[in-house]
Amino acid sequence: MFKGSDTRSAREISQTVDRVGGDINAFTSKEYTAYYTRLPARHQALGISLLGEVLTQPALRSSDIDNERQVILEELAMDDDSPDDVAHRAFMSHLFPDHPLGRETAGSVETVEAITPADVRGFFESHYRAGSSVVAVSGPLDHDVALAQIEAAFAAMPPGDGRVPRTLTGTASAGEVIDDDTEQVHLVLGMQSVPRSDPDREALDVVNHVFGGGLSSRLFDEIRERRGLAYSVYSGVSSYADAGAFTIYAGTQPAHATEVLELIHEQLALLIKEGVTDDELDIAKGYLTGAFELGLEDTGSRMARSAGLLVTTGSVRPVAEQVARWDAVQQADTRRVIERILSQPLTVIALGPVDANGLELGLPSAG
Questions:
Q1: What gap in Å lies between CA 74 and CA 179, rounded to an integer?
Q2: Cα–Cα distances in Å, from 348 out to 95, 186, 236, 317, 367?
Q3: What's the whole-model pTM score?
Q4: What is the spatial distance between Cα 138 and Cα 116, in angstroms, rounded to a whole number?
Q5: Would 261 be classed as within a structural domain?
Q6: Which residues, listed in sequence order, are joined to residue 351 by a DSSP beta bridge?
Q7: CA atoms of 20 and 363, how far apart (whole Å)
Q8: Which H or E element spans position 33?
Q9: For the chain, percent helix, then strand, then coil, each to nearest 5?
Q10: Which 3 state secondary structure label does DSSP give 179?
Q11: Are 273 and 113 in contact (CB under 8 A)?
């Protein structure tokens, strides 16, 4: 899309943004694609106009698509050189088998090489429509002025809803062992979780922070601080419109992989058996609310939050309401979500020189 419009070349688009000290970029998540520009507030009209031009009048020339194909193939090769990325990618494919959430967002070498310019143009015509798009602007601006600028910039976007039908997720698999010549063994464990709108979402956020979401978490303290067995160890929550994932990660030397895996299982079993303490509950709620508020001091974060919520839920939850939802989590809520989510069977990925080090997971192996 940034390779050129009906009136500008790719270089002219870049020069237009550079000239005012801004930046322009895009990314694709599991559920939506975002295009954004950040520039000084006095150039607001330019930013809105340029995004509108890129999104409604892309040239989509065959030569540009072929050039971009090579860039994406290089991106895939770069990701393949990052073993923790490969492990996480395998984890999602086993957590959501035969489902879009389980697929790598950037695609595979085979799919990227197979896409034709006609495919790209057809995709643009089918999905880039007003009914499936939102525009969010954040900064020192006048609301009515911004609306008028957006209306003018995006007037050419065709009506209609370009979203694809959603399908239910299936049952997760047990995972796999991937033998690879790496310096560390990369362990990714977890289970399917709750969707974004689930009433237990905030309680799960609290439990996640206690377990592996912060510097005072159980995993960080037990595996890194007390034993020095990993540099990177954490857990995280991903929530989508109709599904979610709870993920645990640790990277460790092959000689310690079995011990680290056992410690993760022990800490998870302890959490399921005893729950969280009152002090841990208080710390987690303080972290979640404080970090959330600090993050919103950046206009880019405010823009991304508003746009993401609008495109996935249709509304923007007020900041005070979100803070109140975390504050309202009680012990009964954490016990319920632990039983509901963390007691499920685990999907486990182990990537590294595992065969030579006798790591026993009881899972299928892939070379």
A1: 23
A2: 9, 11, 15, 34, 16
A3: 0.92
A4: 36
A5: yes
A6: 178, 186
A7: 55
A8: strand 33-38
A9: 50, 15, 35
A10: strand
A11: no
| pLDDT given for residue 367 in this prediction | 45
Distance separating alpha carbons of residues 28 and 183, to the nearest angstrom: 30
Could you tell me the residue range of the domain that residue 44 belongs to? 10-95+100-153
Could you tell me if 351 and 287 lie in one domain? yes
Q: Which two tokens stand for residue 326?
A: 């975390």
Q: State whether 326 and 207 are in the same domain.
A: yes
Residues 85 and 205 in one domain: no
Of 309, 316, 352, 29, the residue nearest 196 (C-alpha): 309
The CATH number of the domain holding residue 202 is 3.30.830.10
**What does DSSP say about strands 33-38 and 185-192: parallel, antiparallel, or unpaired?**
unpaired
Q: Let me know whether 191 and 131 are in one domain.
A: no
Q: Which helix (DSSP H) or strand (DSSP E) does residue 348 occupy?
A: strand 347-352
Burial category of 87 from C-beta neighbours within 10 Å (exposed 0-12, middle 13-18, buried 19 and up): buried
β-pair partners for 35:
26
Q: How many domains does the chain have?
A: 2
- Tell whether 327 and 196 lie within a shared domain: yes
The single residue listed with the structure tokens 């026993």 is 360
Task: Decide if 29 is inside a domain.
Answer: yes
Residue 353, token pair as written in the block: 């020189």
Q: Encoding tokens for residue 54?
A: 């890129």
Q: Does residue 243 sit in the same domain as residue 293?
A: yes
Radius of gyration of the chain (CA): 23
Count of positions (residues) in the chain: 367
Task: Name the band, by pLDDT with cuts 50, 70 and 90, for residue 165.
Answer: confident
Q: How far is 286 from 227, CA to CA, in rounded Å?
A: 27
Buried b (16+ CB within 10 A) or exposed e, 22-33: bebeeeeebbbe
Residue pLDDT, tens place only, 330-367 = 999 999 999 999 999 999 999 999 875 555 555 555 54
